[in-house]
Amino acid sequence: MITAACGSSTKKGSNTNQGPTTTLGLKNANDTGPGVYGGSLTYGIEADTSGGFCLYKAQLAIGGIQVARAIYDTLTMPGADGKIHPYLAQSVTGTANNTIWTIKLRPGIVFHDGSPLTAQVVKDNLDHYRKDNPLFTFVFADVTAIDVVNTLTVKVTTKVPWSAFPWFLWSSSRLGIMAEAQMQSPDCNTKLIGTGPFEYVSWKFGDKFVAKRNPHYWYKDPATHQQLPFLNQITFVPQEDSAKRTSSLQAGDFQIIHTDDPLEIVKIRKDVAAGTLKDTESDKFTEIGYVMLNVTKAPFNHLSARQAVAYSVDRNVYNRLRNAGILTNATGPFAPGVDGNLADTGLPSVDPAKAKAAAAQYKQETGKDLTFTLDHTADPSTTQDAVLVQQMVQANAGIKVQLNSVPDQSTLINIAIGRGFDATLWRNNPGADDDTQYVWWHCNNSPSLGTDPNGDAACDNLVNFGGFNDPIINTDLDKARSSASPTERTALYEAINREFAKELWLLWAQYTLWTVDYKPNVHGILGPPLPDGAAPFPGLPTGHPVDTLWCDGGKC
Amino acid sequence: MALESAETKIVPGALDPAAIDEPEDEVFEKRRIGVLAWIGIGWLGLVVLIAILAPLLPIKSPTLGDYVHPQAGMFTPGHILGSDDSGRDVLSRVIWGARASLLISLGSIAFGTLIGGLLGLIAGFKGGVTDTVLSAFFNIFLAFPQLVLALTLVSVLAPVKNSGGASSGEWAHRILVVILAVGIVSVPLLGRITRASAISWSQREFVMAARAQGATNRRVMFREVLPNVMPAMLSIALLGVAIVLVLEGALAVFGVSIQEPDPSWGNMIYSQLSNLNSAPTVWIVPSVLIFVSVLALNYLGDVVRARFDVRESAL
Amino acid sequence: MQVIVRRVIQLMVVLVVVTFFTSILTALLPGDPVTTIAPFTATAQDRTNIRNQLNLNENIVVRYGKWLGHFVTGDMGREYAGTGVRGQSISERIKDSLPRSLILMLYVQILTLLFAIPLGVYTAYRAGSRVDDLSNGFAFLLLSVPVYVSATLMLLFLSVQHHWLPTEGWVSFGSSPIEHFKHLAMPVLAITIGQVAVYARLLRSDMVATLQEDYILMAKSKGISDQRVLWRHALRPSSLTLLTVAGLNVGQLIGGALIVEVIFHLNGLGFAIGDAINRRQYIALQDYIAVIAIVYVLVNFAVDALYRVLDPRIRGARIG
Q1: Closest residue of chain C to A51, computed from CA coordinates
Q2: Which of A:246-275 have CB within 8 Å of C?
Q3: What is the pLDDT of residues A61-73, one digit of tens each?
Q4: Domain interval for residue B90
Q5: Fewer Cβ within 10 Å of end Cβ, chain C: N or C?
């Protein structure tokens, strides 16, 4: 079964201005022994999914992704080696210089409603993703054709050589394969039919999502040859307040939760030391916490404004006060272990003199005092995060910051989409092949949507919420996409990393530490080895598989 | 749906066991409450005074913290009541927060009493169609969940600004908005109470006599009825202030009360709820202050009732 | 018969006024609802469709009229979730959440009265005594604790530290009566705590006045014991204000239980309202408010009927 991975590793950064760069790696509870069938778990998740689960229309954050992973499978899945492997698909091979991708499916897989998994169904899924969803429309913009070759083979043709294409069939577990009956139903967002380990039973928004065991699940644990899943039932309950989520776990109302709130992690670690809880922690392939700036309008369309804020935030103090000191300062969007990671990118560190100078320069350039609004979700913990940022910026640079609290995650996402913000606390870009970040940062510049105040073309990519249009980043992303040379790609992503530090489009804070925390009688968090034998993916920002969850004696 | 109480005759000492021992029970009551009432008045006066003098007091900034002493406990040098997660001084925040909380509670109830009181007075005195319409207005608006209405009103009156930065006068604007929202919400209930009292007093002989003497309605209403109605209004207003003091915290839960980093007693309490142990003075001190103030208001209300022999219950 | 007709008219008037006011308020809410409702995957055509579907292009009276037309025929519509995708049925949501809010409100009223009535009677009986002052003070201590503070403290102590009660969730009476009450114990208590002071004081005040009336003196002079006089003769006519307030409170409790519903994850109507406001689901909001208004009116009809039972003198007095 799953074994504990490496313990903590400590790497001291070379640039002490950046603060400690220790990385945790993966810390997992020892899970030995074959799984036991039976039992029912209640999983406390971060938020409910208001838009529903019509996946090609859905807006899934980690709460929704974790639920989706119970009901659906993706064609591919990454492994511990940081490479992408086939999962629902039997193989995904690239030919003709990676412009033709052949997806071969496994025979005999059925959906929850009994319909078979065929190439036609997969094609319909991918077509929907391509056409009905602006996010995936951008993602799959380089796909020119999807054809059915035979019942179990799909051929995808791409415009450019695309070595990382198989990663997009995973898309952070957002690209689940749905049955025709769901896709064609007007109730698509509530009538969930997938191939996954659990079948949909019921969902009351804000209440709970219930799923029961799929007895015809196609996957057997490659190591122990047991039919998966083990649990009879899994219930997902949303709880946006992270402190309450922990309380409910401690009280036993939840048997398993996930959290990235450092203050809660510290609390849970105490319980783990006392033996009343267990946890799995990982900052491998993790995502980044940052302040997202809207550079399409004042003030952050000026580099001086961005610099003023960057120089005024003391990340070590922030880390100490808000993260209990357990997180690592980020140097860029690529976490340690991810391609393009650099210990020193030239990212500015706190310097009140430079901050004041930059603010003065902004005033000189525009004639106005530098001031902006910082958006954040309303829960007390995030509010205090925003308060600290505001205080530091005011104390170190004399910039007045207005705080705006937003009721929940979904509203914040909508504000970001509408680019109706100045700055907001954000978290994104989980580690994977770096080409997966293309969609968040690239601007096509055709057709032009008019100019922004700087005279550059506005970014036409809706999903680049900050709206930055950086020629170096655009070019390097394109080159890295088409390149088949690992060394060339690494060099390109490192250049992108440095460019971010120079232009300060996004203000990196810390690498996120995601944890899954559970009662001592729960096992099997990371999931089974992949079908081709690869060890399971240790990245947690996109959730984890639920098919190998089991409880002692089959009782949770 | 409205109800007014029938006329009652006052028979002193009927079933009051205290009266059996003390023949002058009214004096007895006044004497007993005396000390506590003065303490209550004193406390409220002190709080109001300190809140007004806030800018002149030698206290730290309420919105800028030092990161040197975050989460300080009580009696830490430099932070006599401790400090919060960002090192902001609790004493200072509590004093500046008093401004916000007191302004909101006093302002909104004053608004409600003024408007609701006036409408209720007119309804109770005039009767007839005026009364029917006004009563219907009161009753219908009581169907609204108050908290929801207050939240919505704040959102309508103070549109959220996602961008654009800070401008001066934000705090004052927000206070005004909350006062207005809570004030509007309190109008129906205050109106009903005033109306009931006005009905009761309007049927008294001396009022009828004044009318018979040819005084205009308006004169009678303001000269004869209003002064008698005011004690009941005052007593309920004091209760109302206490309730709004606590309610302000509920608004903070939804992020519509005073915005960070400005303090109010309510938002200080709410900010620590996820981590009660980490900087306990931040939520304990305002809670104690609210409690003592509520008690003080209660005793004040008792004084008013005893002094003016108010039958405050008629609704 | 005439009474019933009048009642029905009253009900309709309240309903229309309250919901029309809601629609005005929501029209005044800042921001374009389409931006919030439309999933970010919506195209420009989608947004136009939303505007048409929600009648956002029409003026407010017409829009309201259409809503009212649907509502009175029982069609509460669906939440808006995107083109070609059906949102959750609002009546389903009401069917789930309304009973929960009603039950919560019922338990709160019962518990509050259970505490407030004895407290009010006793402090009226011993008006002016030390016990009166202390009880009053204690009741106000409870009133001064905000609901979310008492809820959080209770949770910490009773759930997390001691595992005596569950932290959250709703269990219906049908599936397990014991679990049902265990899950509701803290939410009900949290709300009750803040209400007892107000109810007790209202009752006390009425009782003090009643105890001074002629017929009480007469009963006492007949040799009837204090206890009997208090509970059998004085309580009923003194409870009118209390009853009125309890009736008026219905709307407040349903919507105002919002905080408790969020903390304890009860997913009642209060939570649904807050959610509808956040997600700009205006039709859902109108439906919820309309339902609350109906419940409020019906409860107050019952209160009116109870008046006559409790105090025959009222039958002749002015009733609005």
Answers
A1: C81
A2: 247-248, 250-253
A3: 899 999 999 999 9
A4: 32-314
A5: N
Q: Which of B162, B273, B275 sits opposite A420 (nearest CB)?
A: B162
* Residue C154 Cα, gap to closest chain A Cα (Å): 12
Answer whether residue C316 shows pLDDT above 70: no
Q: Domain holding B223: CATH number? A: 1.10.3720.10
- Chains with ≥3 Cβ pairs under 8 A against B? A, C
> At residue C246, what is the residue type?
A
pLDDT at B240 > cutoff 60: yes
Q: Is residue B8 part of a domain?
A: no
Contacts across the A-B interface (CB distance below 8 Å): 97
Residue B93 reports pLDDT greater than 60: yes
Q: Who wins on pLDDT, A439 or B215?
A: A439
With cut-offs at 50, 70 and 90, classify the pLDDT of residue C314: low
Q: Which residues contact B46 (CB under 8 A, 6 or more apart)?
A: none
A188 touches chain C (CB under 8 A): yes
Separation between Cα atoms, residue B67 and residue B53, nearest integer Å? 27
- Smallest Cβ–Cβ distance between A414 and the set C35, C85, C86 belongs to C35
A388 min Cα distance to partner chain C (Å): 24
Closest chain B residue to the Cα of A396, Cα to Cα = B64
Percent of chain B with pLDDT over 90: 25
Token pair, residue C34, equals 């389409």
Evaluate whether residue B81 is within a structural domain: yes
- Residue A310's pLDDT band, with cuts at 50, 70 and 90, is very high
Tell me what pLDDT residue B33 has.
57
Give residue A514's pLDDT: 95
Substitution target in C157, C168, C172 with the highest count of A β-carbons within 10 Å is C168
Q: What is the pLDDT of residues B267-308, one digit of tens each?
A: 999 888 877 878 889 999 999 999 899 888 888 887 887 777
Return the beta strands (E) in A168-295 as ranges: 198-204, 208-213, 233-238, 256-259, 278-282, 288-293
Which ipTM value was assigned to this complex? 0.83
Contact A366, A381 (CB under 8 A): no
With CA atoms as reference, the chain A residue closest to C271 would be: A206
Considering the domain boundaries, does residue B24 fall inside one? no
Candidate from A58, A253, A408 with C-beta closest to C166: A253
Chain A residues with beta carbon closer than 8 angstroms to that of C36: 411, 414
C293 to chain A nearest CA, in Å?
24
Nearest CA in chain A to B160: A404
Answer yes or no: do C163 and A253 touch at CB < 8 A: no
* Average pLDDT over chain A, rounded to an integer: 88
How far apart are alpha carbons B54 and B170 in whole angstroms? 18
Is residue A38 very low, low, confident or very high in pLDDT (cuts 50, 70, 90)?
Answer: very high
Residue B23 scores a pLDDT above 50: no
Give CA–CA dist C235/C241, Å, rounded.
Answer: 11
Q: How far is B294 from chain C (nearest CA, A)?
A: 6
What are the residues whose beta carbons fall under 8 Å from the beta carbon of B127, sequence distance 6 or more? B199, B202
Q: How far, in Å, CA of B200 to CA of B205, rounded?
A: 11
Q: Which chains touch A (3 or more CB pairs under 8 A)?
A: B, C
Q: Distance, in angstroms, between A456 CA and closest chain B CA?
A: 22
> What whole-number distance in Å separates Cα of residue C79 and Cα of residue C283?
7
Residues B8/C209, Cβ–Cβ less than 8 Å = yes
| Within a domain: B2 | no
Q: Please indicate whether, in this complex, the C-beta atoms of B11 and C313 are within 8 angstroms of each other.
A: no
Question: Quick check: A435 contacting B, CB < 8 Å?
Answer: no
Buried b (16+ CB within 10 A) or exposed e, A295-309: bbbbbbbbbbbbbbb
- A20 pLDDT more than 50: no
The pLDDT tens digits for B96-115 are 999 999 999 999 999 999 99
What global pTM score does this model have?
0.86
Predicted confidence band of residue B310 (pLDDT cuts 50, 70, 90)? low
